[in-house]
Structures are given as C-alpha cells and as structure tokens.
Task: inverse folding
C-alpha cells in the first residue's frame, strides 16, 4: 500500500485528550451547574448550532451532560455537534487534503479495510460492521452540509443536487446487512462511485469520510489521526518539537496563545500568553480558519515566519520568528511553598519520556530544601505516555498494583505493579 496511507493510519488512543479550559468553557460549567432543567440547556445548544459554532456547542453539551448524564436529547445533540466539528477539522487539515489528493480510491479502500480489521482485532467491545458502515454514512451526510467540505470537494454543484444525494445515499449503504469486511468495502466502493456519478466527488474523498466515521463515532476518545496530528502526539511523548514554542487555544481564529514555552523562540520574540496571532505571512488567520492557520506556523528548523500580533491592550506588533527545536518541560513550578512546614509543590504538564527523570531531579532538589509533604498539580494535564504515568506513580507507591490494561487480545492484557526501590 502507498506509504502515505500507511503513515496516516493510527490505531485507537486511550489518552485523556482534554485541554486547558477557555473562559467560555468555565462560564458554561457555571451555567450548566445552575440550570434547573435540560430544556434551557438544549435551547442554548440549539442557538450555538444555528450559528455553526460547533466548538462551543460541543463544550456546552459536554457541560450539560455532566449536569444531566442520562438525558438522551443532550447525548444526541453532543454527538451531532462532535460530528460537525470533526468534519470541519478534517476538511481544513492540510495533511488530510494532501492524502486525498495523492491516494487512489483503491488505496483508500485498502485503508478502510485495514481500519475495520484493526477494530475487529483490538477494539474491546464487538462492533457490528453494519454499524460501522452506518457511522460512515452519517459522517458523509454531515460533511455534505458543511461549507468547508463542499467548497473543497463539490465546486460547481448546486445545493439541490447535493441535498438530493445526501438524503438518498443511505439507500446504497444501508440496503443490506454487512456480514464481513469485504462486503463493507464493496458497499463503500459503491457509495464512492455513486457520489462521483452524481456530484463528481473524487472517490478517495468519499471513502475517507467512511474511514473517519468508522473511528470517530466509536466513542468520545477514539480518533483517526492524520500524519500531522500523529507528529504532534509523538512530539508530546518525546518532549520536544520544531516550532515557535507556543500552545494555542484549539479551534479559535485568530490564534490565541495560551502559553509561551520558556527558552523558545516565541518568548525571545516578545510573545505572551493572551496574545492573538492575526496574520501569518500575508495570510489572515480568520480567512483560512484555525486549523489551516496553525498549519502555517509549522515549518522546517531554522526557517522564518512573519507574525502580526495583537496584544492584550489592542495594539499590534510585527515579529519575524525563527523556528527551532523546543524542549517542552514536563515538570515545572517546582518550589517549597512553606519552608517552615516543608510543604512543596510541583506541576506535571504532561506524561512524556522526560517526565520520570525530571521528577527525580525535582524531588531531590525539594528534598535538599527540607520537603516534608508534596502537592502534585495535574490540572490541565492532557495525559500522554502510559509508561511515564506508571513511573510517576511508582515513585510514591511502595507496593501493590498501579494499573491494569485489558484488551481483546491477550497481548494487550498487562498488570503494572509498584516496586519498593526508589519510593519516596
């Protein structure tokens, strides 16, 4: 199979993929907690959906579901909002766009078959293949309503033609029960052929919607990663990356800087938390959207990028920043809060390959300062490498089980236990 296809297939990730909450998300938490009934929460959610603000809609319904965890309507609207948000993210991902442009329909169908095989082999709960085809159909139907997908793959098609196809494609994909991967592949191939015949969509683009739907509708934590997203995950695990040294608010344009990494080129250029990146080169971030704008920040080591920055006070500055390798600390904020009582503090930003040695260095430093007790702050920690999290727990547990993993195959069943050596 084409190497692009291979590089783009990533199995299911079992990480907590949370991000630092925005002020809006914090406001939603208060709103959901104060709401006396789900009807008012659904009304607010519908307003966000009407404005196509899918990021805020997802945040809103997630908060609402915490207040009313058994409400079926909230669950359904959350699923629909996640679908729309995911479609937009895929439609504006340059790595996905590049793959669709360079991968044949046959190779895309091979990828779809491989995804189904991986799910049959590794996903803990049995998933009927008919349901995976249904999920792909739903994903395609949503894609056909989003302007980002339509403008990219359906140029020249009338809204009536698109809607006619969208409301009838299920007659092709859901007409028969799917009993095996070969039948599923055949159904998706027919859907791609029909989409090309009626709407002149590249078959690869149609097939990939079935790939995305098969994975993203499994549960809230499963996702298909593009090659760019995979690189980001690997960089997080390694603890370093080539870039500017900033963390951004997801899905927001202009790009809002959440954090500036110490020692990185962005800090040296005078960028601060709360700044907005308005332009990258000659490209306005609002015009191209958050995902494509973030892609423009990437580039080879030692390359330059021009940024137009809006400061918190509303003023604008222009900076040319050189991309370079940035080391991302896993542990920071190490300090002795109360020297008299020996209360110490440290924050674990993420679990990566450098976490354990960084933690050891911090603990010994605090020990020499008279540490008697320790506060470990993991707020905003998105998760990361399981081995690193186990190593951290092992530093504080003298014995007993730390965590167990259970999968469909025996090779995935592992028990991790604490060792007395090195315990604090």
Result:
């Amino acid at each position: 199979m084409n190497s692009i296809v291979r590089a783009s297939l990533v199995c299911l990730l079992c990480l907590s993929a949370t991000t630092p909450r925005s002020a809006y998300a914090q406001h939603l938490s208060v709103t959901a907690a104060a709401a006396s009934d789900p009807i008012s929460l659904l009304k607010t959610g519908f307003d966000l959906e009407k404005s196509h603000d899918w990021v805020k809609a997802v945040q809103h319904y997630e908060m609402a579901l915490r207040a009313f965890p058994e409400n079926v309507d909230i669950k359904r609207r959350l699923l629909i909002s996640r679908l729309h948000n995911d479609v937009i993210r895929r439609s504006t991902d340059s790595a996905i766009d590049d793959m669709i442009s360079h991968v044949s329909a046959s190779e895309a169908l091979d990828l779809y078959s491989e995804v189904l095989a991986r799910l049959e082999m590794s996903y803990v709960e049995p998933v009927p293949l008919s349901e995976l085809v249904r999920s792909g159909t739903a994903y395609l139907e949503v894609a056909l309503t989003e302007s980002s997908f339509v403008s990219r793959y359906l140029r020249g098609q009338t809204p009536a033609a698109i809607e006619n196809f969208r409301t009838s494609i299920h007659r092709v994909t859901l007409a028969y029960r799917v009993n095996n991967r070969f039948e599923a592949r055949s159904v998706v191939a027919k859907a791609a052929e029909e989409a090309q015949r009626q709407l002149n969509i590249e078959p690869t683009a149609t097939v990939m919607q079935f790939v995305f739907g098969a994975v993203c509708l499994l549960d809230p934590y499963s996702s298909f990663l593009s090659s760019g997203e995979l690189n980001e995950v690997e960089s997080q695990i390694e603890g370093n990356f080539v870039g500017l040294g900033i963390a951004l608010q997801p899905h927001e344009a202009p790009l809002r800087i959440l954090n500036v990494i110490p020692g990185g080129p962005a800090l040296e250029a005078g960028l601060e938390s709360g700044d907005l990146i308005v332009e990258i080169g000659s490209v306005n971030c609002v015009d191209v959207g958050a995902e494509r704008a973030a892609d423009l920040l990437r580039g080879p080591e030692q390359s330059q990028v021009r940024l137009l920055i809006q400061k918190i006070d509303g003023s604008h500055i222009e900076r040319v920043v050189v991309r370079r390798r940035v080391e991302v600390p896993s542990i920071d904020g190490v300090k002795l809060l109360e020297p008299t009582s020996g209360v110490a503090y440290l924050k674990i930003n993420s679990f990566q390959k450098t976490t354990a040695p960084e933690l050891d260095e911090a603990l010994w430093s605090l020990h020499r300062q008279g540490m008697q007790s320790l506060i470990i702050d993991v707020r905003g920690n998105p998760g990361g490498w399981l081995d690193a999290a186990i190593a951290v727990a092992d530093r504080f547990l003298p014995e007993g089980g730390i965590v167990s993993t259970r999968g469909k195959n025996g090779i995935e069943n592992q028990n991790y236990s604490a060792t007395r050596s090195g315990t604090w």
User: Anything to note?
Assistant: Residues 1-24 have pLDDT under 50 and may be disordered. The radius of gyration is 24 Å.
